Amino acid sequence: MARIPHKTFTCAAGCTVEATLNLIGGKWKGVILYRLLSEQVLRFNQLRRLLPNITQRMLTNQLRELENDGLIARKVYPEVPPKVEYRLTDYGQTLAPVIHALKAWGDAHVGREGTSVPMGKQPLDE
């Protein structure tokens, strides 16, 4: 079913809201950014443990996209086995208020009747 546009808000091509959502939108990017914001530095398998429902391939793709967009930095250490760490870049850190606002909104509204994520199933519960 096609979405019906909201009558009071239009976002024409080039809209900054659309551009922002293209950078951080999707099922996993926001959660990855939140975890990196909270933990500062995480290795690949640490992220996998924090996001148990993500596949290895999806995590790899999402990290690659975030890196290509300049939001995260990937550091590879020259050792065996390979050690790779991810952290937010300075540019990625500028999303902190946005990520915190999304978290606060979710804390206030998730579990509300009619939402698709039932209370107690939030992926960001500590």
Show the helix and strand layout.
Elements: H1 16-24, H2 29-39, E1 41-43, H3 44-50, H4 56-68, E2 72-77, E3 83-88, H5 90-93, H6 96-109
Antiparallel strand pairs: 1-3, 2-3
Structure description:
The chain is α+β, with helices and mostly antiparallel strands and 126 residues long. A three-stranded antiparallel β-sheet has the order 1-3-2. It has helices at 16-24, 29-39, 44-50, 56-68, 90-93, 96-109, and strands at 41-43, 72-77, 83-88. The chain is globular, with a radius of gyration of 16 Å.
CATH topology of the domain at 25-105: Arc Repressor Mutant, subunit A
| Rg (CA only) | 16 Å
CATH class of the domain at 25-105: Mainly Alpha
**Widest sheet: strand order?**
1-3-2
Provide a quick synopsis of the model:
By secondary structure, the protein is an alpha+beta fold.
Keywords summarizing the entry:
single chain; 126 residues; alpha+beta; Arc Repressor Mutant, subunit A; 3-stranded antiparallel β-sheet; 6 helices; globular
